[in-house]
Amino acid sequence: MNETVPSRWLDGRVPTRLSFVAAPNESAQAWLERLTHRYGQTPPAQADAMVCLGGDGFMLEVLHTTLDRDIPVYGVNCGTVGFLMNPNVPDDLPAHLATTQEAVLHPLRMRATNREGEVTEALALNDVFLFRQTRQAAKIRIDVDGRQRLAELICDGVLIATPAGSTAYNLSAHGPIVPLSANLLPLTPISAFRPRRWRGALLPSSAQVRFTILETDKRPVAAVADFTEVRDVISVEIQEDRTRHTTLLFDPGQSLSERIIAEQFTT
């Protein structure tokens, strides 16, 4: 489950030791210079909070570096897409951070086996997706908790998203948006050919999913967990990893849970 919890600074403390990271674009770099001049630059290991200047892609990279570290991340949108970010830099950043809400995110763990028998494990805070490598459609068998649920899905690919990632690739593939507290993982086909009308499934967050690639020589498939890509996979196992976590900070009234709900009413 991904959770929204109150700020850790409700006791009146103010997070003054800040660590700043910025994407390589001009806007983010300008803000980095301005903010570090005003507030200083604390190494992440000693910081109360990390401030991430960039877009969602850069934020995702930063969140992977903070897994299991007790440092929350406050994002400011200096990029193109800012769903995981806050819109502006507050005038008094430390005081503002003390009023924020926290969202605790747990990643998916992918275990992918390729045709040579090599096993790659990777974590995904957004999604794990499989996609065909050639002009041939992929053929994939789907098992959930050791039980075959779909003998053959003919498609461009298939994905499993976290609730936080359900508004990203999953939504573009016409998958459902999932609230943070729902304890659900959307399983969504990408351009399904057979069964043509199958739109996917909502799985409990405890589900163990196994994708088995059929006709691997003729129809090679790659698997991707956020930034890790494995080519020529023959099987991929996915499960939420409750032992790992990272924490995001959001402005009051603009929590990640609220954003996910609001996204379902956009036109």
TrEMBL record:
Gene3D superfamilies named in the record: Probable inorganic polyphosphate/atp-NAD kinase, domain 1 (3.40.50.10330), Probable inorganic polyphosphate/atp-NAD kinase, domain 2 (2.60.200.30)
Which is an annotated Pfam family here? Answer: NAD_kinase
Kindly list the cofactors needed: a divalent metal cation
Any GO MF annotation of the entry = NAD+ kinase activity
Establish whether keyword Protein transport is in the entry. no
Active-site feature positions? D56
Give one GO biological process term.
NADP+ biosynthetic process
Enzyme Commission numbers on file? 2.7.1.23
* Reactions catalysed: NAD(+) + ATP = ADP + NADP(+) + H(+)
Primary localisation category: cytoplasm
Which residues, if any, are the signal sequence? none
Q: What is the protein named?
A: NAD kinase
Q: Which organism is it from?
A: Novacetimonas maltaceti
Per UniProt, what is the name of the gene that codes for the protein in this document? Answer: nadK
